[in-house]
Amino acid sequence: MQVLKITNEHGHDTDKYRQVALSDGEGGMYPLCEHQHDSMDETENCPEALARTEAMAGVSDGGHADRVTQLEVEAAQLLAEAAQLKGQEDASKV
User: Fold this and answer.
1) Which of 78, 15, 71 is CA-nearest to residue 48?
2) How do residues 24-63 score in pLDDT, each as one tens digit?
């Protein structure tokens, strides 16, 4: 695993980072998360990248990455449900 600085289409630094996996067999780099980070430290502690690394390696880190990922999914579901309820409430006021 390696943290790389992201560049734009012109090759200029964006001051954003992403953790990637390097493949010896197939060659190439594969992002371990779908978003960009503001610092190397933040990138190295990304719950999504940690969970994906754990899944790829088949080695558990004691469950912290799994628990964090699970909580993030649950939070996203709750936020979506709240937005839906808010939309229903707003529609009923009209």
Assistant:
1) 71
2) 766 678 888 888 999 988 988 888 888 888 777 765 555 5
List the structure tokens of 2: 């390696």
Residue 3, both tokens: 């943290």
Q: In what order do the strands lie in the sheet with 13-22?
A: 2-7, 13-22, 29-31
Contact 49, 40 (CB under 8 A): no
> The pTM is what?
0.53
**64-93 vs 47-57: helix crossing angle, rounded to 10:** 130
The tokens 């990637």 sit on which residue? 20
Query: In degrees rounded to 5, what are phi and psi of residue 33?
Result: -150, 165
Nearest to 1 by CA among 67, 66, 46, 64: 46
For 61, phi then psi, to 5°, come to -100, 20
pLDDT value, residue 21: 85
